[in-house]
């Protein structure tokens, strides 16, 4: 993100007045615009005491969705700091949509990707079908989407909101064909199908296949990170990162995770994160926890923070960082709980989970209470054409078969 030359020295207002003005902006869109005015304003928005004040004044919600697999079904739960969770509990609105002749226990709902504009990408499954949805939990709105190639196993999903009013978004889906006889496999390469959904066209399209060396694959437990106008994915085995633009194309060559971190004993406890709008990387180190930030300009990692976490080990056995609420508050997890840890004074808040029995996935989420403007091809009633075309095709083939059989029989 490029900043103007505007600085605090040229500002006619003191910093505390600017801070107060920013907390009174009336929408997330306005706030995101203000962040681009100057580096000073950008840093203010990420201060630890900014978001609670902004959420209280603007009725905005800011936090994380926690997701876990309980037996054979996914369970989600929203967590946040005090004052940032809204007045009513958040849940996935499509969970209450019950199709005819289907029992509630046959329905499952899974978050695939989140955004900081209040939108989630979810997949709702029954015994008979899978269906992709876009939903806004704070206003209990949902949109049914056409399905991609669901016969391929979903590996990663990323959601990019380009505009919130009217809603415009893209979905990047990476999937792995189950066949072992593809020509890429014969060449010894792992390959992934890349599909892009564009809300303006309202269709899925195939992008260029993504090829990986043998035994290198996408990290199943590492979320896609949307930062600096790109989507980043962590790769296993070679400890590299892949950056895709919003058209599903690799933006530049794959790059390694921070070299010094690879040497640490507890290196396995690491995560790609979004930090102040940039790609970040956190890992456990001999001194506690490190935060690295990737600079796209020179394509290199810079060590930004090294924090002692010994105090957390008194209340939890294996704390590891999985995200950042703002510049000073890290989200840490253990197996059965999450912790908001303030880096500056080492204070923390342990959040006991009510619905999730463990922490499998974390989705950053931020939302206002404004209803979506759903001006898009009758999106709320959109159903994949396959649902209607397939039975029609079968019927047409049967008619042709009967006609040909009757003709042949008449000649005999």
Structural category is alpha+beta
Number of distinct helices:
6
Distance between the termini: 77 Å
In CATH terms, what is the fold-level topology?
Answer: Neuraminidase
CATH secondary-structure class: Mainly Beta
- Quote the beta fraction: 35-45%
CATH homologous superfamily title: Kelch-type beta propeller
Mean pLDDT: 82
The major beta sheet can be summarized as: 5 strands, antiparallel
What is the overall shape?
globular
Got a strand count? 25
Domain module tally? 1
Note poorly predicted spans.
Answer: 1-9, 377-405
The share of residues in helices is: 10-25%
Radius of gyration equals: 24 Å
Please name the CATH architecture.
6 Propeller
What's the short story on this structure?
The protein is built from 6 helices and 25 strands.
């Amino acid at each position: 993100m490029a900043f103007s030359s505007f600085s605090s020295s040229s500002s006619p207002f003191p910093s505390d007045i600017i801070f107060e003005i920013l907390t009174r902006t009336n929408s997330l869109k306005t706030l995101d615009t203000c962040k681009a005015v100057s580096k000073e304003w950008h840093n203010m928005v990420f201060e630890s005491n900014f978001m609670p004040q902004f959420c209280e004044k603007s009725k905005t919600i800011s936090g994380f969705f926690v997701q876990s697999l309980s037996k054979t079904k996914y369970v989600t739960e929203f967590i946040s700091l005090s004052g940032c969770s809204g007045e009513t509990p958040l849940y996935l609105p499509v969970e209450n949509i019950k199709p005819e002749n289907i029992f509630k226990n046959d329905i499952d709902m899974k978050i695939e990707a989140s955004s900081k504009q209040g939108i989630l990408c979810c997949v709702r499954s029954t015994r008979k079908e899978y269906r992709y949805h876009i939903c806004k939990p704070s206003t209990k709105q949902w949109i049914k989407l056409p399905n991609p190639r669901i016969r391929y196993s979903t590996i990663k999903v990323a959601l990019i909101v380009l505009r919130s009013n009217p809603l415009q978004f893209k979905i990047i889906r990476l999937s792995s064909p189950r066949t072992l006889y593809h020509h890429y496999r014969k060449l010894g390469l792992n390959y992934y199908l890349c599909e892009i959904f564009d809300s303006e066209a309202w269709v899925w399209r195939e992008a260029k296949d993504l090829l990986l060396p043998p035994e290198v694959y996408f990290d199943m437990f590492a979320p896609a990170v949307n930062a600096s106008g790109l989507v980043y994915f962590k790769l296993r085995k070679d400890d590299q990162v892949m950056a895709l633009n919003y058209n599903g194309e690799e933006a530049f060559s794959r790059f390694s995770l921070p070299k010094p971190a690879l040497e640490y004993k507890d290196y396995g406890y690491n995560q790609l994160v979004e930090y102040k709008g940039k790609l970040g990387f956190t890992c456990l180190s001999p001194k506690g926890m490190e935060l690295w930030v990737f600079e796209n300009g020179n394509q290199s990692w810079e060590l930004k923070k090294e924090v002692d976490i010994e105090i957390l080990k008194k209340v939890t056995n294996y704390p590891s960082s999985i995200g950042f609420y703002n510049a000073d508050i890290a989200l840490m997890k253990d197996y059965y709980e999450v912790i908001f840890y303030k880096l500056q004074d080492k204070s923390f808040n342990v959040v006991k989970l009510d619905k999730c029995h463990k922490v499998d996935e974390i989705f950053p989420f931020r939302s206002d209470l404004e209803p979506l403007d759903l001006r898009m091809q009758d999106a709320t009633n959109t159903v994949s054409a396959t649902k209607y075309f397939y039975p029609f095709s079968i019927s047409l083939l049967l008619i042709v078969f009967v006609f040909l059989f009757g003709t042949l029989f008449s000649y005999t």
